[in-house]
């Protein structure tokens, strides 16, 4: 039995280790599809993807694949679809496991099927609420109030869990969904409980030079932080030099949002300041942050499509190697272990390379700010 996980591991903490341990009770191996340079909330990952892959491999994962940035830096439905279709393409995964606040797969399945078969009445309500200035997530939760438990649509892990199931439905996948109830620390919680803390709490501690050893199962000796403030000048310059027409073509930009972003960029400096000034009730902060980063790396809307064009390996152990051997003849797309060997023309692949070139500038270690990291690093191999 091989179980897939769609992850960010930003950072891999004891909650993730709890989940891998629970999965291994019933599964022979774990394949993680992990965000690479940037993450779904619109930020640079706390450290590079190879370091995060090594932390995962040291903590129970057997094979780590990169989720292309066109999925990682995208809205929840596209994030989920990219991850699910990557596992589908591998052709050897039996289950997908994901954390959820509710911990009940039957409840999540019912909610997913309800949303996937949205009625015209619900669709109209969502549009009306959005016309009044609501963001899509808020409008959706309000429209479904009474037919879907509002806690399911207001809690981040539940939301992603439902999107994973919807992606399974849309792709006619044979992969079966399984959920693990989130334990101890809630998403984005500032509390520490029994050795568990949210990833956001641990990231905050790292930025403040606090000890996180008891909150993570493993941390590499050469762990190097990355932070978005390192590219404040690059972000500001990019947006001030952009035309409205160029920004209009960036992924997730709609409804004239390009004009608001450009106007704000003329009056503000830095990633966080610009994002804060652009945000309003209509758009979530995560969406605004994703758009700004998408503009920086030239992630235009034509690059996204639900079907992956390749699978990139970030790391593996002996079990992971056997999984790759088994997938070699049935995988529906090329499997990349050495970046330089992939010669196919691909906008998605080129975007991944650009994303890492920019993300490396975010490193606190000047020696790790070089370009072409994808060409210099090989997959992590664990014995």
Entry keywords:
single chain, 383 residues, alpha/beta, 8-stranded mixed beta sheet, two-stranded antiparallel ribbon, 18 helices, 13% strand, globular
Overview of the molecule:
This protein is of the alpha/beta class and 383 residues long. Helix content is 46%, strand content 13%. The strands form 3 sheets. Strands 1, 2, 5, 6, 7, 10, 11 and 12 form an 8-stranded mixed β-sheet that branches. β3 and β4 form a beta hairpin. α6 packs across α7. The two termini are 21 Å apart. The relative contact order is 0.17.
| Mean of all residue-level pLDDT scores | 92
Helix percent band = 40-55%
What is the β-strand count? 12
Helix and strand pattern: EHEEEHEHHEHHHHHEEEHHHHHHEHEHHE
Strand % is 5-15%
- Which class of secondary structure composition applies to the elements? alpha/beta
Low-confidence blocks of residues: none
Distance between the termini: 21 Å
Q: Sheet bearing the most strands, described?
A: 8 strands, mixed
**Number of continuous helical runs:** 18
Radius of gyration: 20 Å
Taken from the alpha-carbon principal axes, the silhouette is: globular
């Amino acid at each position: 039995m091989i179980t897939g996980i769609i992850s960010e591991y930003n950072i891999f903490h004891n909650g993730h280790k709890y989940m891998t341990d629970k999965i291994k009770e019933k599964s022979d191996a774990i394949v993680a599809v992990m965000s690479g340079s940037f993450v779904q909330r619109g930020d640079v990952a706390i450290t590079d993807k190879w370091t995060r892959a090594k932390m995962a491999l040291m903590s129970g994962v057997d094979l780590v694949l990169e989720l292309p940035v066109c999925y990682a830096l995208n809205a929840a439905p596209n994030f989920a679809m990219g991850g699910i279709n990557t596992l589908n393409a591998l052709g050897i995964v039996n289950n997908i496991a994901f954390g959820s606040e509710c911990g009940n797969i039957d409840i999540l399945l019912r909610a997913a099927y309800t949303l996937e078969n949205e009625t015209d009445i619900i669709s109209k309500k969502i549009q009306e609420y959005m016309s009044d200035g609501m963001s899509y997530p808020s409008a959706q939760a309000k429209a479904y109030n009474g037919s879907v438990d509002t806690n399911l649509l207001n809690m981040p892990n539940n939301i992603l869990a439902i999107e994973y199931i919807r992606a399974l439905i849309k792709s006619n996948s044979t992969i079966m969904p399984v959920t693990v109830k989130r334990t101890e620390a809630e998403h984005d919680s500032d509390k520490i409980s029994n050795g568990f803390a949210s990833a956001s709490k641990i990231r905050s501690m790292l930025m403040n030079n606090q000890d996180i050893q008891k909150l993570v199962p493993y941390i590499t000796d050469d762990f190097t932080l990355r932070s978005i403030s390192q590219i404040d000048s690059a972000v500001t310059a990019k947006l001030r030099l952009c035309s409205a027409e160029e920004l209009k073509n960036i992924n997730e930009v709609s409804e004239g949002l390009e004009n608001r972003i450009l106007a704000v960029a003329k009056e503000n400096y830095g990633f966080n300041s610009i994002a804060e000034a652009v945000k309003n009730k209509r758009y979530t902060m995560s969406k605004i942050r994703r758009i700004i980063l998408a503009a920086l790396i030239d992630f235009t809307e034509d690059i996204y499509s639900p079907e992956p064009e390749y699978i990139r390996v970030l790391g593996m152990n002996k079990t992971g190697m056997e999984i790759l051997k088994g997938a070699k003849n049935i995988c529906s797309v090329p499997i990349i272990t050495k970046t330089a060997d992939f010669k196919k023309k691909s906008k998605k692949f080129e975007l991944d390379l650009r994303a890492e070139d920019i993300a490396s500038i975010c490193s606190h270690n000047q020696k790790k700010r070089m370009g072409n990291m994808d060409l210099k690093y090989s997959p992590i191999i664990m014995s």
